[in-house]
Specification:
single chain; alpha/beta; Rossmann fold; 6-stranded mixed sheet; about 30% helix; binds guanosine-5',3'-tetraphosphate; binds magnesium ion
Amino acid sequence: MDSKLYVTYNDIHKAVRKLAREIEESGFDPDVIVAIGSGGFIPARIMKTFINRPIFAVGISYYGIDNKPSGVPQKIQWIDEVEKKLAGKKVLLIDEVDDTRATLSYCVSELLRHQPREIAVLVIHNKKKKKNADFPAEIQRYFPAVEVGDQWIKYPWDADDIEMHDAKNKSMEENRV
Ligand code: G4P
Ligand code: MG
């Protein structure tokens, strides 16, 4: 059996909705959303439906512009002209997956240089595994929607054939004991 975790658009939507409620209940009221591209773009846009705040996009990737593994996170696109606007703001930082945490912690550290009031980190999936990096101590709020094992997650936006992707999700559900 395919051990990959197939996730549908509906799963993502429901996970974001759940997190929006948790964020509200926690008392955190963000001023802006920062989406880490590319995986964080679609979750961030869905979050805007529930928490209507402006979205700033940053592009950080383990794979450089030439799509080769670089060994370190790289800025593909950065919010140079707006990063000053983060000063004093409560930031909701959104990515799709917390895997090794290398990209996420790098992004957090870079954003912290611009004196936001607070940064909360939101991910759809957190892989329960030994992480290669820790969040800086300034990160007090962390919202993972789903805890998963160290397995490969197939996101719907990477699918070539979305019907096939959803069918694999369905058979995964049916095979669950
Ligand atoms: P982290 O800080 O969020 O844990 O990310 P890490 O550097 O460990 O991840 C390296 C890249 O691998 C990231 O992509 C991340 O999205 C991707 N990745 C990690 N685990 C999975 C998984 O199970 N499924 C999929 N589909 N991707 C995974 P990136 O370089 O940021 O690029 P992008 O894909 O977001 O554009
Ligand atoms: Mg990513």
